[in-house]
Amino acid sequence: MNEEILKNVINKQNQLEELNNKLNENRKVLNKKIEDLTTVFSKENEGLISAIGTSSEEIILGKEILRENAEVGFVKDSNKKRLGGIGIRIIKKLEYQETDAFNWAKEHNLALSLDKKRFEQIAKTEQIEFVKVKENILVTFPKKLSLD
Fold first, then answer.
1. In 67-82, which positions are buried (b, 16+ CB within 10 angstroms) versus exposed (e)?
2. What CA–CA distances, in Å, run from 30 to 23, 25, 27, 49, 99?
3. Contacts of 106 (CB under 8 A, 6+ apart)
């Protein structure tokens, strides 16, 4: 019974390999066609692509100047609504040493999360009273089954 099932799985595995090979061949043909069309498209639209690139660079430079001017203007007049709908937001950024934050959290009885990965590394090598180690069976298959 097992040998019959194994033969059937091997047969299906071989069919799958042939289908994958055919699909890969078709994908190569498709990629070549896409490459050819992309080349033609790029040549036909070279002027537009160049103009878009130039405009994008000019927009980036213009926005940088507007950003700088808006910051300077805000510092002078505290007005958050600037010309053209440009707005100013004040965002708080925290800077601290993690060790100081950890010590503070311990002092204030904040819930600290368990570093599960590190804990399990230790628990696998050291005997911890409340940890039970259970062994499970895992069946693995080779990439390609054979009757050998």
1. eeebeeebeeeeeeeb
2. 10, 9, 5, 24, 55
3. 112
**Would you tell me the crossing angle of helices 2-44 and 46-77 to the nearest 10 degrees?**
80
Torsion of CA 38, 44, 47, 48, to 10 degrees: -60
Q: Which residues pair with residue 87 across a beta bridge?
A: 81
Q: Position of tokens 């927009």?
A: 59
Both tokens of 85, joined, read: 């709908």
Q: Which residues have CB under 8 Å from 17's CB, separation 6+?
A: 144
Rounded to two decimals, the pTM is 0.52
The values of phi and psi at residue 71, to 5°, are -65, -45
The Cα 14–Cα 7 span in angstroms is 11
Per-residue pLDDT tens over the stretch 52-81: 999 999 999 999 899 999 999 999 999 898
Q: What is the mean pLDDT of residues 93-120?
A: 74
Predicted local distance difference test score (pLDDT) of residue 21:
98
